[in-house]
Structure to design on (780 residues):
């Protein structure tokens, strides 16, 4: 049989909804009485369950990390560059679990799903979350899938924070922690950019203080602007210069011509914003940016990352990108320094790239080589553990 | 007599409105039938008019560059750090002219002033402007003040673009051109940030497609957000870290506490935005950001800055700041390289500072030393020319 998909793709995939009836106590003190997670898996779990890899998504991510949802689907999952047969996260060797986190808007319990207590969508009343809430909900998912210990927990950006929190909350259930383009906490500038995005959403009169669903509307303009703000900070100055420069989309600078002049970069950004505002939920965006802002790896470890990482038992791979100014290499080096001071095993690579923060999603030969070589070792270790389990 | 002002201040100053009845042909092809400029001057023009310095303002600037408007005034003009008796631009030696440019909202002809053809404020119908339109209107101001040649035309940021355009439009009327924290043209990223600000303004339902005055309202939220976006990019990551870090203004991260958590940096930004939205005009903000975006020093010189600068007859001082990522030192070095290749006299200093783009407004010993030493030479030259004029 021929397939319409590339040979190194996981091909057609189907998301599953998994229900959890046990109440989930949240860091804020409130309780989710029950919840569901939208999940995709790729590859096969071996009988000793030694080869499971958890993928943690970033701000606007979800469960669809690799493969295609239909034969007509032109666009694969968001991390298809690095998940698939023979790829860095090799689905011939690993059982890969990707999910939409709680608070999300792609099928997991979040502001868009029904609050059974009211019979209406949660909307703005959805409880505030922390990365640790995600970790706890993911731990239950692992249990349900028969996974006692992850071969690796892997994430980029906010997903990297999620992965580090795993290594501290359940040290004996994570063998490797892969932290890409991330940080132990956001800087004031990072928080400022998130606040700009939130202000954009809240300023939209269609936001209705978060209650837009009751008003049968969506704060499209605000969400589009929020995404535009984020997007500019995910790209590098150099990349924008190379890709758009000062090229015009319409108009001319000739003397006496008064029709509107529009730069390509303006039209590109507006398009990105408009597309995003049709598929994403504004309350989820607010909630996710707050999780980012509030994350502080060492807060409960005397504000000392070395003390924090002494609790970890896993080994670490840390990757940063030279042109990433939202989560700069300096932030990754702080993670590495703390891991070394805590006497933990860590491999670190700072990858030359002009693609900014988004580099962690995009093809890059050296990034792939480092990532794949590390994960191949993880796979060998998983296979050895399987043999040991007999 | 004692004054309530610091000894090195120009003290009490009074702005003047100067009317121009001669039509001004604009780069866009339209004509301003007449216009007025709001102007402040400090110091005395000598009888040969050899000591006049023109101050060109940046995006949100105006004519009030130094001194105080009343004895109760607590806040001096925007460049009081560098204009005054004994300061870099020494008002004991120079006659300093500062103005609000056309298109502005501080008393010069702009979107807020009356269009005599309609009897209503210009609003969104104010013609689009280029930096050269400012230069031409300023040239008439010079003529009216009896200034045939500026000792120096000085500007930071957008004001630096204005100053460079002077050196090309009227080469024999500028002896020195001082270009601080500026660029020969914006990068795609710069344009993107300006477009975010414009989108914020246009998304505000009170903007009414620019016709808010007819609706007796102001797009306050949109303008505030635009300013917040700009402000984040004028500060450095390091400065925001030092000044705000992750300090909280309200709330706590303790488990079970669900009251809102707010970082200091969020509240600071919102305050900046709110204050700005009360004093600035949204149509002016749109117009000024477009002047920035459209400025391209060499466009009409075969896109070659060396060819462009060969038309200049002035000497140049170029200053940049290490942590300025909106108008980075690289942009200033491009100016310097082009000037050198064009065989022009140029002094360049890259000033160590963690204050970002706003550094050009703020106290800095080395910046002041470089700036003052250059301007003192300009003053000596002006005094020599006066002696020669007998």
């Amino acid at each position: 049989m021929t397939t319409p998909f590339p040979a190194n793709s996981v091909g057609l995939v189907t998301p599953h909804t998994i229900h959890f009836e046990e109440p989930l106590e949240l860091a804020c003190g409130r309780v989710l009485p029950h919840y569901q997670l939208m999940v995709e898996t790729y590859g096969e779990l071996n009988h000793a369950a030694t080869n499971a890899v958890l993928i943690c998504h970033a701000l606007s991510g979800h469960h669809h990390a690799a493969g295609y949802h239909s034969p007509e689907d032109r666009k694969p999952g968001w991390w298809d560059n690095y998940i698939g047969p023979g790829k860095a996260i090799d689905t011939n060797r690993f059982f890969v679990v990707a999910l939409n986190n709680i608070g999300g808007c792609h099928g997991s319990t979040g502001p868009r799903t029904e609050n059974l207590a009211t019979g209406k969508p949660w909307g703005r009343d959805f409880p505030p979350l922390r990365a640790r809430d995600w970790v706890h909900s993911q731990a239950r998912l692992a249990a349900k899938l028969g996974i006692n210990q992850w071969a690796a927990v892997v994430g980029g950006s906010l997903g990297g924070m999620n992965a580090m929190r795993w290594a501290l909350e359940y040290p004996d259930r994570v063998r490797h922690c892969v932290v890409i383009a991330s940080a132990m906490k956001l800087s004031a500038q990072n928080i400022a950019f998130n606040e700009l995005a939130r202000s954009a959403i809240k300023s939209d009169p269609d936001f209705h203080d978060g209650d837009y669903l009751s008003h049968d509307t969506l704060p499209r303009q605000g969400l589009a602007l929020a995404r535009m703000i984020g997007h500019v900070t995910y790209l590098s100055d150099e990349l924008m210069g190379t890709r758009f420069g000062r090229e015009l989309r319409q108009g001319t600078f000739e003397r006496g011509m008064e029709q509107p002049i529009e730069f390509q970069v303006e039209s590109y950004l507006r398009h990105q914003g408009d597309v995003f505002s049709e598929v994403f939920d504004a309350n989820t965006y607010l909630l996710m940016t707050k999780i980012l802002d509030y994350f502080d790896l060492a807060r409960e470890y005397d504000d000392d990352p070395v003390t924090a990482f002494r609790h970890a038992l896993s080994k670490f791979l840390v990757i940063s990108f030279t042109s990433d100014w939202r989560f700069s290499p300096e932030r990754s080096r702080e993670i590495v320094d703390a891991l070394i001071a805590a006497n933990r095993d860590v491999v670190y690579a700072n990858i030359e790239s002009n693609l900014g923060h988004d580099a962690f999603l995009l093809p890059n030969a050296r990034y792939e080589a480092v990532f794949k070589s590390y994960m191949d070792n993880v796979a060998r270790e998983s296979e050895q553990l399987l043999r040991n389990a007999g």
Q: What stands out?
A: The first strand of chain A starts at residue 16 and ends at 20.
